[in-house]
Amino acid sequence: MQVFQAPAIRMLIVSLAALILAAGMTAGSLAQAGDRASPGSDAYARGAALLQEKRYAEARDALLSAAEAGISDAYVSLGDLYWYGRGVEKDYAQGAAWFLKAAQAGHPEGMRRTAGNYKNGWGVTQDIDMAIAWYRKAADAGVPDAFVYLGDAYLAGEGVATSATQAAQWYKGGVDAGSWLAARKLGRLYETGSGVAQDYSEAARLYAIDASRPGGGSVEASYYLGRLHARGLGAPRSAEKAKALLQRAVDHKNNQFADDAAKLISALSASEETDAEIDALTDETRRVAEDIAGIGNEAAEAAGELCLMAKPSTAQFCAPAALALAGQDDLGLAEQRRIRLNAIDALLKAGCAQDNGASCVSYLHPDIQANYSNEQIVASFQKGMAILGPACERSEAAQCKAFSDGLWWYRARAPLPGNFAKAMPASLKRSCDLGDINGCLALADALGEGTHGFPRNADAARNLRTQLCERDVSAACVANNAARSR
Questions:
Q1: Is the pTM value of this prediction over 0.70?
Q2: CA distance 2 to 460
């Protein structure tokens, strides 16, 4: 593999070459001047005009004449005609051949298209090594997308050795080349401290490049930048600014951030904390929040920051944050496991202390309970049940689901009394009947797997998920598709 060259050096070389050519200091500049006045150039101009008029068959003839004269722009245009079947029969192999010819002639767009074809196996045999090679050449020519792909490749270890440091270097090159996508991806590395020193201010600056671009930024950049404003990390703490950015994710419902964004907006709207109260958080609480951020679990990070404010209006976020961390893979690292378990403990204590029943019963979660004594678990369970039971009877849907979860987790430790055994399935069904989406998803899982006191009923589970899928609940659609593939 070619050794990585710093993007800034590479761009300087390209700029110097351009200056030399512009000054007419090479024979190539004279040849290009001749080309502009050549019959081939005239043929290309005719072909380009015919393309604008959508007279594709006539355009093809003119472009072929230009291609015979060696006009590389014509190679790309012919590739597009075959690729999209305009004026000719659609033929990916022919299109790829023209793009390759353009790439070999040094045309930046030809390089980009050829690299993508080898990456995906479009019109050619898939070859990741060839894709990497052509993306490198495209990056040398200053193509923004090429820097982004190479950053992605190093981050995922696709065709190259995995290296977040190398990924960051390529994304930086993409930012210099004007890529908003590279800015967002590099922002994530700065926020999480992957491949670069963690720097929330730099992350916010990079997210803003994408989020504020003309036409509206991406949902991802808006969501990430909104979270930083909500937390006052690297950006001024501003509930108003945070809600405006997060609302973009809510408005685009078919994305992975919509639910979390809606919860954050709700918490920011309901919370009456002032900046002074937030700034007065203890050093210990701030440390836990930073530890959660360092773990890299987005769901836990977003909810955990709100939970640790230790207010009744934000206690609802404690259990979701703790449960998100409970399933985190420590990758065999003892120190990471210690940090994760300490964070879970802090979250559950904060929630249970604010009388959040879901936090109290979460001590029984199979991935959490081993870290506590039986006395601690039983006491927390009893407190949680005393809170959740009446709340479920008051038709608080989320509390019904938590009530059922607590009973199911307790059942693994000891037999449930008869009244609790009957309440377990009834409360979960009530949660769904009251319109709680998470309760309905949990009910579908319980029916499909035969848990929470329900007999296994795959048809009922599938029917419920289908209803949810029709309501644009993407998790239900995914679960049904997975079940069909088994």
A1: no
A2: 56
